[in-house]
Design brief:
Blueprint lengths: L2 H15 L3 H7 L4 H4 L9 H13 L5 H10 L6 H10 L30 E10 L5 E9 L4 E8 L4 H15 L5 E5 L2 H7 L11 E4 L4
Parallel strand pairs: 1-4, 4-5
Antiparallel strand pairs: 1-2, 2-3
């Protein structure tokens, strides 16, 4: 029970039962000095206004830096009061949004196709069996109509098998006009470069290698 609630309880006991102040304070376990205490009401408007000005001017300043600026401005305030007002006014530093560089991460943006057979895309998809075994799927699709050209599922798909599947797809669906965009390991990427000589000059590979 807070001191304010105890003061109200003392007033109620004195009014309803006619007991003395000393007896009422004893029943509520409240000191007489606490009963007569009048809390000071602080006007924090000027202080909070100054805090907002500092936060707007120096957007990367946190609570400790704002507290130092307030002390330099002549405000007699301890760090606990600054932290309390800092939380009440919700002046937390906004986290910088991390700008990701696609080039550093190895990502390649595929061109927007305008017709069928212009751009192919392929990638590996992994899954697990109940017994803990691992399945590996090679998915190849046409980016224009999102048609799945081939899905090869096996426990292991090496570079030679990828080369064999690509040759089969080229025979069935034709060679893409612009390029093939995929995310493979470096070994498979090197193997795929060997068939680039058999592709048209307009067709090229775009690698986004795994880390």
């Amino acid at each position: 029970m807070t001191p304010e609630c105890k003061r109200r309880a003392v007033d109620f006991i004195r009014l309803e039962f006619g007991l003395s102040l000393r007896k009422a304070c004893s029943l509520t376990e409240l000191q007489k000095s606490s009963y007569f205490y009048t809390p000071r009401v602080r006007d924090d408007l000027v202080l909070t206004t100054k805090m907002h000005e500092i936060a707007e001017k120096y957007k990367r300043y946190g609570c400790p830096r704002i507290h130092k600026m307030l002390r330099r401005a002549g405000f007699k305030i301890n760090h606990k009061r600054t932290e309390r007002l800092y939380r009440l006014e919700m002046l937390k530093i906004r986290k910088k949004r991390r700008i990701r560089n696609p080039a550093k991460r190895g990502k390649v943006k595929a061109p927007i196709p305008v017709r069928i057979g212009q751009v192919y895309a392929m990638d590996f998809v992994f899954d697990a069996l109940v017994d803990g075994g691992r399945l590996k799927s090679l998915c190849i699709l046409d980016l224009f109509n999102q048609k799945s050209l081939w899905i090869e599922v096996d426990r292991s798909i090496g570079s030679q098998k990828v080369m064999f599947l690509l040759e089969r797809i080229f025979e069935i669906f034709g060679v893409p006009e612009v390029g093939i965009f995929f995310r493979f390991c470096q070994q498979i990427a090197k193997e795929l470069c060997t068939i680039s000589s058999r592709l048209p000059d307009s067709c090229s590979f775009a690698f986004a290698l795994q880390s």
